[in-house]
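Morning F.,

Quick status update on the modeling queue. The single chain you submitted on Monday has been processed. Sequence for confirmation:
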Amino acid sequence: MTKAEACLWKYVLSRRKLNGKQFRRQRPIDRYVVDFVCLPLKLIVEVDGISHTYDEVVESDETRQLRLEELGFRVIRFTDEEVLTVINRVRENILAVINEIEVSTP
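C-alpha cells below.
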C-alpha cells in the first residue's frame, strides 16, 4: 500500500467514516485487485501514482476500468498528489459520488 493509499484509508475510508459505508481495501474483482471498494454501492476508489501517467499503464487502466464498469461498478480515481495535498476535497468528492449513487438507486 502506498503512502497516499494508507492516508486515504486511515483518514477517510476505514471504520465506516463515510455515511456509514463499509469500504474494503485491496479486494479482487474479476481478474483485478482494486485499491478500495464499497461492495453494496458497487463503488471503486483508485489512487494512481506517477506510473499511471505512462502510456502503456494508461491503456491498461482504461481496459481495466471498462471491464469493471461492465461488471456494474463505478470507478473514481484520484492521484497520489490529490490524496496527500487536498484529502478533504477527495473526501468530499467521494461523499458526493456516494450521495449520487444512493439517490439514483431505487
